Fold this sequence. Notes:
Layout: H1 2-19, E1 35-46, E2 49-60, E3 64-68, H2 75-81, E4 92-100, E5 103-104, H3 112-118, E6 119-122, H4 133-143, H5 150-163, H6 167-170, H7 183-196, E7 201-205, H8 213-226, E8 231-235, H9 239-245, E9 248-253, E10 256-262, H10 263-268, H11 273-279
Parallel strand pairs: 3-8, 3-9, 6-7, 7-8
Antiparallel strand pairs: 1-2, 1-4, 4-5, 9-10
The structure holds adenosine-5'-triphosphate and magnesium ion.
Adenosine-5'-triphosphate (ATP) binds next to helix 2.
Amino acid sequence: MEATMTNATASTAEQKIQDRTVPESTVGEVHVENPRMTARAVDVYYGEKQAISNVNLDIGLGQVIAFIGPSGCGKSTFLRCLNRMNDTIDVCRVEGEIKIDQDDIYDPRIDVVQLRARVGMVFQKPNPFPKSIYENIAYGPRIHGLVKSKVELDEIVESSLTRAGLWNEVKDRLDQTGTGLSGGQQQRLCIARAIAVSPEVILMDEPCSALDSIVTAKVEELIHELREQYTIVIVTHSMQQAARVSDRTAYFHLGKLVEVGETKQIFTSPTHELTQDYITGRFG
Ligand SMILES: Nc1ncnc2c1ncn2[C@@H]1O[C@H](COP(=O)(O)OP(=O)(O)OP(=O)(O)O)[C@@H](O)[C@H]1O
Ligand SMILES: [Mg+2]
C-alpha cells in the first residue's frame, strides 16, 4: 500500500515537472560588470537537432561560474562553444556571437590554436599526451613561443606542476610517461598543462567525476587558488561542488539557460520552478 502511494506521489511530481515550461528568456541577471567573455543569441545544432537555444550570458572576469542541469541539457555543448571545441564535430553548427575581451571568437580571421591557448580546457576524462610528464607541460609554452630558453621552460614546468599540486609527487620522474600516473595525478597533470600557457579562461567539463573525494578536494582547492588569476567555467553534476567553488551558477534545461545568478542565491532561493526542482533533487 505504502509503495503504491509513494509511486503515485512520485509520478505526480514528475508530471508537475513536465508541465513546467522553460522560460523564453533567462531568469536572473545574465550581464556582469566586467565580462571576460560574452555570449549573445547562441544557438547550436547537431545536424537538424537543436541542442542550445538562444543563450545569452556574460562570464565575469576573475570569477568562477558553474553550469548545472540534467544530463543532455547542453552544458558540455555550450561549454565547447567557448573555445570552438565544437569545430571538431562535423555535424555541429554554432550561431550567434561569442566574444573574449571584445574579440569575436568565430571571426574567420581568429587563429583557433591561439584561441585555445587563451581559453584552455580540462576534460572529464584525463587525457595526457603519450609523452613524458615534462613534455606534457612543456609542449604548449614551446609551440606558443612563450619561452626563450631551457631554463625558462624548466621554470614553467615546475611552477605549473606546483600550482596543480603535483610537483612533489612527480619531480623525481619528469621523464616518465604522463599516462603512467594515477587517474587523479593525470587530471592534475592536465590542469598543469592547461595553466602552463597562461590562459585567460579555463573551461572544465566535470573535471572531478572520475576522482575520489581526496583528489576532488585537491582539485577544488586548486580552483580556489586559480580563481585569483583566471576566469573559470566548470560543468558539474555535484551541487555541493557548484556551491563550494563558484561565484555564479547557470542552470540549463533542454538546451535553454533557465536561470543564472549568484551561487548563494541560486542554491538558497532559486526563482524559477525548474531550478527549484533540480536543486532540491526532484529530478536530474
Ligand atoms: N557529437 C554529438 N552529435 C550529436 N548530438 C550530440 C553530440 N553531442 C551532444 N549531442 C546532443 O546534444 C544534446 C546536449 O548534449 P550535451 O552533451 O551538451 O549535454 P550535457 O548537459 O553536457 O549532458 P551530460 O550531463 O550528460 O554530460 C543532447 O541531446 C545530446 O544528445
Ligand atoms: Mg556533458
